[in-house]
Amino acid sequence: MKTLMLGNEAVARGLYEGGCSFVSSYPGTPSTEITECAAKYEELYAEWAPNEKVALEAAFGACLSGKRSFCAMKHVGLNVAADPLFTISYTGVHAGLVIGVADDAGMHSSQNEQDSRHYAQASKIPMLEPSDAAEALAFAKLAYEISEKFDTAVLIKMCTRVSHSQSVVETEERVVPRQRKYEKNPAKYIMMPAYAKKRHPVVEERTKALTAWAETADINRVEAGTDTSCGILTSSTCYQYVKEAFGDTYPVLKLGMIWPMPEQKIRDFAASVDRLVVVEELDGFIEMHCKNLGLSVSGKDLFPNIGELSQNLVKEKLGGKVETGASLEEEIPARPPVMCAGCPHRSIFYVLKKMNLTVLGDIGCYTLGAVAPLGAIDTTICMGASVSGLHGFVKAGGEEAAGKTVAVIGDSTFIHSGVTGLINIAYNESDATVIILDNSITGMTGHQQNPTTGYNLKGDPCTKIDLESLCHAVGIRRVRVVDPYDMEACQEAIKEELAVKEPSVIISRRPCALLKYVKHPGPICSDPEKCKGCKACMQIGCPAVSMVDGKAVIDATLCVGCGVCKQLCRFDALG
């Protein structure tokens, strides 16, 4: 049956058709929907893991038991999973193991735009790279065949454009291979030095075999063109840009396996054209491979290694006609992302700014506390870095830093990577104050459950991790809970914890305002007669509050009645 699917949805369908039985992931845009869609198939067990390292290790355990397995993550998540990734390359697999990673060129929702292809080369694990939803489905199924044929995990690299765009796919029935019986094999799976030394040559021979396979694989194909003055070597979404820009004008070698790449096939293609050009996003990965083969090639001398490419950019650099399109006469005002109306994080950041504190931030929707008018965050590095960084900042800065510095981290991010940082604070005894922004959900990627919510991926009740007990268990004696809507109480709590000479945790607990089960009191009303136009209510940056003709106006379609703005008004104009 033919149907439209998102690229991520198609990967999930490919997992289903390919006989996958176990899925463990951590949500991260643009990869999240793969696991959410996979969970809709009753035949697949699917879960959210606390972080990507745990997810990959769980998926490896499932494949070791004899069932085909999968885990997904975004590109920065692969950094977290890199530890098991490199050793799994040595052990190989028992049943098929596929790892999905979604890159975010252009940094639509990420703190960097690293190129995950380097991980495939460095770990010596094959990587497939689909260019649309149809290939995403087909490659997911093919990945299991490659995994079991060559005794290796297989990476599937998605990107924002392929993950979140739709195209036609043709679905088939699910085929589940017979479960492989586990047999103890220390030399293959116990990677102590004596065994690991013997596995490394196996990995190198496997790479040679995969390279030979890539030479004739259908997913690496040459498409003829009418003008051989230029031949284009490309993959992924860049293939779509090339075809839209030039159609069948130039010959194209489209790579579906991006590592290891074929050698003779590329040499033959280069020999058939006058000029070889590589079109790829971010780093010159394919280009460097061509240069290592001794080929003359153009690539990053034409195209940037920053951000996404486009059809017009490809045309511009290769001499095509650039489509200018129509332009608006009036400039569209910028619409930077903001915290939602009623967001429980807003008031905390207002208080932190008012107290003129140094705030080490973390990854999540609360990172928006860095933008105007709040501007309360000083750093954002990676998951959990706020807690670990706070310890170092306070230890190095001494008593003065301890009294003026806090870390902020969300509940899901705290479970992901913040716990170990808090253990470090307790163990090495820094006078650090950590604020856990507990909004009872993983908000940044679209409301996924996490170990603190009491529900699993499918929405079923499960074990709920108690943050207070967890903080006490790792050695933090001072743990207190505050309501972020009560700004006076929050300020007093922060002031008191900064003054003590021991580690402390403040849990700011209020569910995300967008959760369906959260009941709100209703919108606040503004009184134009009492309003003095002082704009104090504008200091929190709530999208429901604006100034019209010098008076505060509340948008009743946005306001949830949290009451934070009322606490700022000295004239009782909001009520």
- Whole-angstrom Rg: 27 Å
The side-by-side strand order for the widest beta sheet comes to: 3-2-4-5-7-6-12
Residues in β-strands, percent: 15-25%
- Overall 3D geometry? globular
Give a quick precis of the structure:
The protein has helices spanning 7-17, 32-38, 52-64, 75-91, 117-123, 133-150, 160-163, 186-189, 193-216, 236-246, 264-271, 285-292, 311-317, 344-354, 385-402, 411-428, 467-473, 487-499, and strands at 2-6, 22-25, 45-48, 69-74, 97-103, 127-128, 154-159, 166-170, 221-223, 231-235, 252-255, 257-259, 276-279, 358-360, 405-410, 433-438, 478-482, 504-509, 545-548, 551-554. The protein is α/β, with parallel strands linked by helices and 575 residues long.
Describe the structure.
The protein has 575 residues and is an alpha/beta fold. The protein is 36% helix and 16% strand. The chain has helices spanning 7-17, 32-38, 52-64, 75-91, 117-123, 133-150, 160-163, 186-189, 193-216, 236-246, 264-271, 285-292, 311-317, 344-354, 385-402, 411-428, 467-473, 487-499; strands spanning 2-6, 22-25, 45-48, 69-74, 97-103, 127-128, 154-159, 166-170, 221-223, 231-235, 252-255, 257-259, 276-279, 358-360, 405-410, 433-438, 478-482, 504-509, 545-548, 551-554. A seven-stranded mixed sheet has the order 3-2-4-5-7-6-12, with helices on both faces. Strands 14-15-16-18-17 form a five-stranded parallel sheet, with helices on both faces. Helix 1 crosses helix 2, helix 3 packs parallel to helix 4 and helix 10 (236-246) crosses helix 13 (311-317). The N and C termini lie far apart (57 Å). The mean pLDDT is 96.
